[in-house]
Design goal:
Layout (H helix, E strand, L loop, with lengths): L2 H8 L1 H20 L2 H32 L7 H33 L5 H30 L14
Amino acid sequence: MDATRIHLFITHLPVFGLFLGFFALAFGLVRQDNGVKVVSLAIIIVAIVGGLIAFQTGEPAEEKVENIAGISMDAVELHEESAELTNWFFIGLGILAVVTLYLEVKGKQFARQFVFVVLAISALTFYFVSRTATLGGKIRHTEIGQPVRADDGA
């Protein structure tokens, strides 16, 4: 399987995984259920790994589509720029989620505060990953919006 196929397959994982992980983590926090919080953090970490894989396979995917008729390179560039910013949020959230998972498993007293921070950063990261996904979809799916130009700003 080539990088383009991997990119297209994996791109849904960070969007839906982060969405699911966020709400499950909030539920675990409200219910004060450490098991739910641990599983939720693991879901967020898996979503982030998927996002990092999507980012790494993005460049080879770009090279493959740049010669296809009807592909807007402006749309590809907007998607790429958004992905670069989103990747930084993934890295930060990933580190934070791993630390929080460790604290939660060890039953540390201040783990709860870390969970709140993970929730906040997850919500922010979800905004960026959703924007990146939407811009990626516009590369081939013109039915989800007008063709994108670089000066549109998405």
